[in-house]
Amino acid sequence: MTFRRARRRHYAMTAPTFFAVEYAINPWMDMSASVDTHSALNQWETLRQTYKELGHTVETIEPVAGLPDMVYAANGGLLVGGKAVVAKFAYPQRDGESAAYAEWMTRHGYQPVETRHTNEGQGDLLVVGSILLAGHGFRTDRRAHDEIASIVGMPVVSLELVDPRFYHLDTALTVLDDSTVAYYPPAFSDASRAILRDLFPDAIEVADADADVLGLNAVSDGLNVVLPAAATGYADQLRRAGFRPIGVDLSELLKGGGSIKCCTLEVHP
Ligand code: ARG
């Protein structure tokens, strides 16, 4: 079995203080379903504690009233190698988050750069070692990929998403370490599947049942993989591959179409 090693990570998270499902911009959002904000806060706090117990640094970003999706901090931007790209959202309902995330970046010594085209941060932009995987098809504009490649100075591999339930790259693919990923093949176009097979011959391919609970929306430190608790088949696959799966229940936040990774903005060194 491959030896896996954890690396200490730096995360930023925004509490679901103002979380609600007030509009529907992805197929998971059902405005008639009731949301229990108290339980969302408890689940989110459990996730935060899980990261802290694993030894990671977790910073918190001040939530803003009237921005119910701000809890999905991954979408705020991309932070890597001292560079920061701030999100430009596809839907006007989330517009206000850009300023909030840009302000947080500035306060932390970054100079957030805006893109001309839509980009939804780490929802669609995932760092794997020295390359950047970038999703398009639903949210991030394919043309933003080139803008981002030149801002952060990293080669970008564009991947096309084809299933509206997996509208962000981080709903269909987990970065497990600097050279390993897991993904749900049906979420990608044939051409993008071929690219993934080529780049990651050892990838874990996840089944429908796990993808359907947003199991791939997970966060790995190279050894410990924090994933939605309901994704038990995926957890078994991870264990067999030498990783240590840690299930966390974020069912309340799933009502907005997000889970573990969506709630976690990684500050890459
Ligand atoms: N309701 C949010 C939206 O549709 C959920 C975002 C989930 N975030 C993510 N990184 N996939 O925009």
From TrEMBL:
Coiled coil: none annotated. SUPFAM superfamilies: Pentein. Signal peptide: none annotated. Pfam families: DDAH_eukar (PF19420). It comes from the Bacteria. This is Arginine deiminase family protein.
